[in-house]
Design goal:
There is one protein chain. By secondary structure, the chain is of the alpha/beta class. Helix content is 47%, strand content 15%. The longest helix is centred in the N-terminal third of the chain and has 20 residues. The two termini are 26 Å apart.
């Protein structure tokens, strides 16, 4: 699954996906996006993988689209490229396992939107988020126009998209974009702790929480209530639920297996 532009490292139940074009602040390439899509699909098929962590090598998370090649692609090439990016975003949202975006340095443009496609965003204290599409006469792609207004409201989202001004990590946390922040010198260690902690949780329940919570953005209350009803009826038969109840009664920590 690994290629030069995306490193795939599996540590027990955690799949680490590292964007690896540090010389360009991990700007997207076809190889990176294709590798990411394939790795996410593999995570879905591998029952041993419980958590995915997405990060960037070098000084930043990702600069998104490669500015150096902008203006060189034909409209049809742009259409094909964004189609492949869309496939990646959809694979991430369809994965019934949590994905953590571990952001440091810059998360810019579609790199910011790639982080938004994850389930949790944790950031180093040096991080900055920026949607600079308007500064080169473009709109946001990679799902930004879907995720951001739902997360922070349409007015704040349009302000960020219109201005292209950097959003400091403190403000990103206040807006609810970032779940937690850590000092840069301990960032990798803290992300590892979080991923390992989540990997010990009830994987099947996590998957259903992710699926239904995402559906809530485009569904009615009655539809979500019925989806909760149907899903809970199935969840009470899972091994993890049985173990959770037993552990509660026996006053011990549950040993979930994701089944």
């Amino acid at each position: 699954m690994s290629n030069d532009h995306l490193l795939v490292q599996i540590e027990g139940p955690v799949m680490n996906l590292v964007m690896n074009r540090p010389e360009s602040l991990n700007a997207f390439s076809p190889e990176m996006i294709m590798g990411l899509t394939n790795a996410v699909k593999e995570a879905g098929e591998n029952p041993e993988i419980r958590i995915v962590v997405l990060s960037g090598s070098g000084r930043s998370f990702s600069a998104g689209g490669d500015v150096k090649t902008m203006g060189e692609a034909s409209p049809s090439q742009v259409y094909d490229h964004i189609g492949k990016l869309n496939e990646c975003i959809l694979a991430m949202r369809s994965l019934e396992k949590p994905i953590i975006a571990a952001v440091h340095g810059f998360a810019a443009g579609a790199g910011f939107n790639l982080a938004l496609a994850c389930d949790l965003i944790v950031a180093a204290e040096d991080s900055k988020f920026v949607l600079s599409f308007s500064q080169v006469g473009l709109i946001s792609d990679g799902g930004g126009l879907y995720f951001l207004p739902r997360l922070i409201g349409p007015y704040r989202a349009k302000q960020l998209l219109f201005s292209g001004e950097p959003l400091l990590v403190k403000t990103a946390k206040e807006y609810g974009i970032v779940n937690d922040t850590f000092p840069l010198d301990s960032f990798k260690e803290e992300v590892g702790k979080l991923a390992f902690k989540l990997s010990k949780g009830p994987g099947k329940a996590y998957g259903m929480i992710k699926k239904i919570a995402d559906q809530a953005a485009v569904s009615s209350l009655s539809e979500i209530l019925e989806q909760e009803r149907i899903t809970q009826t199935l969840m009470v038969t899972t091994d993890d639920h049985i173990e959770g109840v037993s552990a509660f009664k026996e006053k011990r920590k549950p040993q979930f297996k994701g089944k």
